[in-house]
Task: structure prediction
Amino acid sequence: MTTIRIRRLKCSDAGEAGALIARTYRTFNRHDATRKGLAGFLRHYDPSNGLESIREHLLRTPLRYVAVHNDKIVGVIRGFERYIVNLYVHGDYHRMGVGSQLLARYLYCCRRKGVRDIKLRATSYGVPFYQKHGFKRTTGVRMFWGLRIQPMKKML
Ligand SMILES: CC(C)(COP(=O)(O)OP(=O)(O)OC[C@H]1O[C@@H](n2cnc3c(N)ncnc32)[C@H](O)[C@@H]1OP(=O)(O)O)[C@@H](O)C(=O)NCCC(=O)NCCS
Result:
C-alpha cells in the first residue's frame, strides 16, 4: 500500500507545489480554459513565471496542505475556511485516495473552526470526485476568468 503523508504546505514547497498544479491543470483540465484563461491560470502557479510571485500567491490562503510520498509532493489542497481554491493530485497518483485524504484534512480543519458550509469552483474533471464527497452543484456551468467552472457546495 502507498503511504501518503499529509502536512501543511511550507514556504519552501512553493516551487514544487506550483509546478504540480500547473502540470496537472495542463494535463487534465486545459480543455476547460480559453487560451487567455489558461495563461492567466498558469501565471499564478508555473514556477517559470518567477518563484517569488508563486510563493506569495500560494501562501495567501490560510489553509494549505500537501500530500507527500517518498519526499515528493504528489497533491496540494489550499483555500479559505469556507472556500476551496485548489485541489490537484499528480496524475500518477489518481484513484489512490490522495485527493480524499487531502479533502478530509481540509474539512476537519473547517469543522474545528465551526464552519457550516464550504464552496468551490470545480473543473469538469473534478465534478465526480466532489459529488462522491457530498458536494452539490449550486448553479449551471459558468465561465470565470476564462475558465469553465462548476460552482458546488457542501454542508458540513
Ligand atoms: C479530482 C482529483 C483531485 C481527485 O483526486 P484522486 O486522488 O484521484 O481522488 P480519490 O482517489 O480520492 O477518489 C475518490 C473517489 O472520487 C471519485 N473519483 C475520483 N476521480 C474520479 C474520476 N476521474 N472520475 C470519476 N470518479 C472519480 C471516485 O468515486 C473515487 O473513488 P474510487 O476510486 O474508489 O472509485 C484528481 O483527479 C485531480 O487532481 N484531477 C485534476 C485536477 C482537477 O480537476 N482538480 C479539481 C480542481 S477543482
Q: What stands out?
A: The longest strand covers residues 72-80.
